[in-house]
Amino acid sequence: MNILILGSGGREYSIGLSIYKEEKHNLFFMPGNGATEDLGKNINIKDYNELAFWAKENNIDLTIVGPEAPLVDGVVDIFKKENLTIFGPSKAAAMLEGSKVYMKNILKKYNIPTAAFLETNNENEAHDFIDTMNEPIVVKADGLCAGKGVIIAQSKDEAKKAASDMLSGDSFGDAGTNVVIEEFLDGYELSIFAICDGENYKILPAAQDHKRIGDGDTGPNTGGMGAYAPTPLVNEDIYKKVEERVVKPTLDGMKNEGAPFEGVLFIGVMVVKGEPIILEYNVRFGDPECEILMPLLETPVSELFYKGATKDLNSLDIKIKNEFSVGVVMASGNYPYSSSAPAEIIIDNIVDEDILNNTHISFAGVTKQDDKLMATGGRVLVCVGFGKTIKQARDRAYLLCGQVHFAGKKCRTDIAYQALK
Description:
Blueprint lengths: L1 E6 L2 H11 L5 E6 L9 E2 L5 H10 L4 E4 L2 H6 L1 H7 L4 E2 L7 H4 L1 H10 L7 E4 L2 H9 L5 E5 L8 E4 L2 H12 L11 E5 L4 E10 L3 E3 L4 E2 L2 E3 L3 E4 L4 E4 L6 H21 L5 E11 L2 E8 L6 H5 L7 H9 L14 E8 L11 E2 L1 E2 L5 H6 E5 L2 E4 L2 E4 L3 E9 L2 H12 L2 E2 L11 H4 L1
Parallel strand pairs: 1-2, 1-4, 2-3, 4-5
Antiparallel strand pairs: 6-9, 7-8, 7-9, 10-11, 10-16, 12-15, 13-14, 15-18, 16-17, 18-24, 19-23, 20-25, 21-24, 22-23
Helix pairs in contact: 7-8
């Protein structure tokens, strides 16, 4: 097939790398990054109507959308109008991530377990609700904030200030003109991904992400500093509850709403006393969870996404490798506070067979300058290791980190600590 992947990060590189390894497809990336050029061809057509025209002219058999913004903007609808095969939710279904208010109301309407909440655009109402709550208190901006629109306030005063700053537009502009205030759930978090075709679904192994910049989950939130899968903190009982109480009613509910859900449903789960409670939905793969899940698939990735895009998931027997995957994000010096000066990436010539056969790099914030690969983004790349145990996979990922050099590089040293402690 001719396959187009939309996006420029490690998530899109990982999807591309898995398809590249199938050795039978032609890959295109829009816009891609400095390393996706090694897997296929980068193109730069930002207008979705023009891009759909290009896809038709170039006989693109499948388009895969990586990030949330094009989905919320309606790229799937534009491509489908041109009878192009595209994997991802419609603009209407992408509201599950595009608006936290919409998402919480869907959860409420279809009796899907979630934290008690209030949605409002009224400051007084927000403050009154906060006064009735126990700390800590979660305050969320309604719209897309690149994963940064959630504040966990330790006091009522802090929660009120966060809500006021969002509603006034000071924090997140238009994305904060509505807020969701909800109870804090005390448990452990999981990322569960369901590949959906509107009717049917396939659940991938549960992962755990590490959001904070520092070891021991300290410092500010980031886009994610590492992840591992499958996590031993999930069992068949939790998977079953997520399927019965979450995935099935969501797919039925979205069909009922006239917005059948096709694509990746990313379910942010908090497990409280053995019960899965839903924190949020996203409508695409998490990053860096995608980097560790793609290599665990024995089923060809192109086949999974194609069947997802053509309402044919029922015919697919999904196979997962019997191993673990750990990804460690290497970030630039000033991340997540500010941008860093571009720095050349130098990767040692790896001779160790163990590292060669059981690791790889997924590139994210990189560009090519005069044939040199430069670190130009916040999260630069992900070192991914595989193994029969989480410890073996993690050790290999960190050995690979030691082979990668650029000025200011930093990474957490405790990825997967929840599973190993």
